[in-house]
Specification:
heterodimer; A: mainly beta; 7-stranded mixed β-sheet; 4-stranded antiparallel β-sheet; about 0% helix; about 50% strand; B: mainly beta; 12 strands
Chain lengths: ~110, ~120
């Protein structure tokens, strides 16, 4: 039981490049989330999903897109990376509304 | 508006001292959950506790204890006899359910705790 996994662990991009971050969970959770963590700002919700085939915007969605084609996977895409997107990205999942969210190990992204 | 405030940005204590991390929250929901997460230097986020708004009993787990007071909207975390391994950033969080029944957690900005040997 791996819990929540994220791929890749670290990535360097040049401004304007695109990439996709993959989150996978094996706990059969309905809800999945993408957060970004920046110094002194805690975690901020980018997008979330309440089930397979659904996505919704969080607090800071601009510049990101997501897809949830399979229940266990939640993809975060950056179409044209900007230096402001340099951050640590965390994926999380939960079974039901207000249940505990379990986090992946994070992806460190540097945009030059 | 929902908000979580951790006024202590950094705390440094000597090993074996007791330390309390403060958390104050704001919400208009009558039903909500409060959480504490630990982020050690390795970077992962580790769930510590969840408390619902109807349960004001204090919780103790080994050297950790939590004091939930609705009257002051606070959910403070105390580590007794601190150890170097407790060094981490600790996040307090509040769960609301205002977006299409999804559980959105709002995090405080975190308190960096350093335990000196």
């Amino acid at each position: 039981n791996a819990g929540v996994t994220q791929t890749p662990k670290f990535r360097v991009l040049k401004t304007g490049q695109s990439m996709t971050l993959l989150c996978a969970q094996d706990m059969n959770h309905e809800y999945m989330y993408w957060y970004r963590q920046d110094p002194g700002m805690g975690l901020r919700l980018i997008h979330y999903s309440v089930g397979e085939g659904t996505t919704a915007k969080g607090e800071v969605p601009d510049g990101y897109n997501v897809s949830r084609l399979k229940k266990q996977n939640f993809l975060l895409g950056l179409e044209s990376a900007a230096p402001s997107q340099t951050s640590v990205y965390f994926c999380a999942s939960s079974y039901q509304v207000r249940e505990t969210q379990y986090f992946g190990p994070g992806t460190r992204l540097l945009v030059l | 508006a929902q908000k979580v405030t951790q006024a202590q940005t950094e705390i440094s204590v000597v090993e074996k001292e007791d330390v309390t991390l403060d958390c104050v929250y704001e919400t208009r929901d009558t039903t909500y959950y409060l959480f504490w997460y630990k982020q050690p230097p390795s970077g992962e986020l580790v769930f510590l506790i969840r408390r619902n708004s109807f349960d004001e009993q204090n919780e103790i787990s080994g050297r950790y204890s939590w004091n939930f007071q609705k009257s002051t909207s606070s959910f403070n975390f105390t580590i007794t006899a601190s150890q170097v391994v407790d060094s981490a950033v600790y996040f307090c969080a509040l769960s609301e359910a205002r977006y299409s029944s999804a559980s959105k957690i709002i995090f405080g900005s975190g308190t960096r705790l350093s335990i000196r040997p």
